Automatic annotation (TrEMBL):
Pfam families: PITH (PF06201). Belongs to the PITHD1 family. Gene3D superfamilies: PITH domain (2.60.120.470). This is PITH domain-containing protein. It comes from Hibiscus sabdariffa (roselle). PROSITE patterns: PITH. Residues 6-177 form the PITH domain.
């Protein structure tokens, strides 16, 4: 799958939400100190195939991403290897302070089981209605493709729009003139 093809899989109105991440609040539980979340999430790092986010004590990762403004989340890209790439990914909208002890107490807003195409960069389109007014996103990586101890994620990208850009009142005013 070429870069052009994966780009067209994300709708034109959807943007990379990287610029709307509140970096001061980003957290990742069970990350390796030498292979941290920045490797997969930050611009420049996530494009480098040699850099990965790796889990530490076991295969699970719990990632918390707050946003600087309210967003609508359309799709996610989670890239990794065929063996150690993530498999079951649970996404939670607006759930603060989750830990491994309570993550299974809450129903996820959506769950994705990543295919080899997803691991190569094909976006996972989410249940859009569940991600309309998102202030924060928690991503729970439950397991990986081979059941190994370490999960490696090469890239995480979030696509959607800011709620401000889809102001219906604003659209109506323009049509009235």
């Amino acid at each position: 799958m070429s870069a052009a093809e994966s780009a067209t899989a994300v709708q034109r109105s959807q943007v990379d939400l990287l610029d709307f991440i509140d970096w001061s609040g980003v957290e990742c539980l069970n990350q390796s100190s030498s292979h941290s979340l920045s490797n997969a999430l930050k611009q420049g790092y996530r494009e480098d195939e040699g850099l990965n986010l790796e889990s530490d004590a076991d295969e699970q990762l719990l990632i918390y991403i707050p946003f600087t403004q309210v967003i609508k989340l359309h799709s996610v890209v989670v890239m990794g290897s065929e063996e150690e790439g993530p498999k079951t990914v649970k996404l939670f909208a607006n759930r603060e302070h989750m830990g491994f002890s309570n993550v299974s107490d809450f129903p996820p807003s959506d769950t994705a089981v990543l295919s080899s195409d997803n691991l190569k960069g094909k976006p996972v389109v989410l249940k859009y209605v569940k991600f309309q007014n998102v202030r924060s996103l928690t991503i729970f990586i439950e397991d990986n493709q081979s059941g190994s101890e370490i999960t490696k994620i090469q890239k995480i990208a979030l696509y959607g729009s800011t709620v401000e850009t889809t102001d219906m009142k604003g659209l109506k005013k323009i049509e009235d003139h």
